[in-house]
Amino acid sequence: MSARTEPVPVKGKEWYKADDVAEEYDSKRFSRGGRLIDRREKEAVLGALSPVEGKRVLEIACGTGRFTVMLAERGADVAGLDISRAMLAQGREKARDAGVDDHISFLLGDAARLPFPDDHFDAVFAMRFFHLADTPAKFLTEMARVSRGQVFFDTFNDFSTRVVYNWLLPMGSHLYSREDVERLVADAGLSLATESHDFVVPYGLYRKIPGTLAADIRSVDTAVGDTVVGERLSSVSYWNARVPEESDPVTAAERASEAE
Length: 260
What we know:
This protein is of the alpha/beta class. Helix content is 42%, strand content 19%. The relative contact order is 0.16.
């Protein structure tokens, strides 16, 4: 893979790296009704990656370590990469508190230039990341390069209630169509294995209301989401992709070169 002279632009990069953002990140997003979001996201990751015991896993944009710690607690050897020193510091503290810091390596780095050889991990995943990426093809191709089995990620969707407040977010947000995701997956040399769609009611509302009210709204949200129309209106999608077998003529190096 040839060297890149310019970093891949990420929306709100400086905002995300601020110390106060890291310190308040979990409490602002995953308290009150946001606990439902935290639980659903963890279910999505575990559902896609399990069983994880003994697996070597890489998390892109690991943030405060919500998922890295969860996977390490279940026996995975996890590397968490992020661009924010402050976020990584929160993650290291969380790992120490959970007693799994010996199973996690937190790394400061650029997801467009992963410091790992081809096929190094059993699984690579990213949560709450692709909506910030201006050039997602480069990131997904790198994730595919270093995985020998699985790539899992989520997106926020363009035909959803999220468009109502998307422009207000301090870091911006890239919304995706199904066609966008299918193109990204194919261009990275991956094949889409499974998918699921959720949250007709957008994240922003859950975070603003008490947990008991959020639970009632979530029940309605889930019921609507189980319909054909509800699935189409879902604001979040979870995509589980597979790396091709060794017999596939498209190599990791070729995929990386094509993404240049």
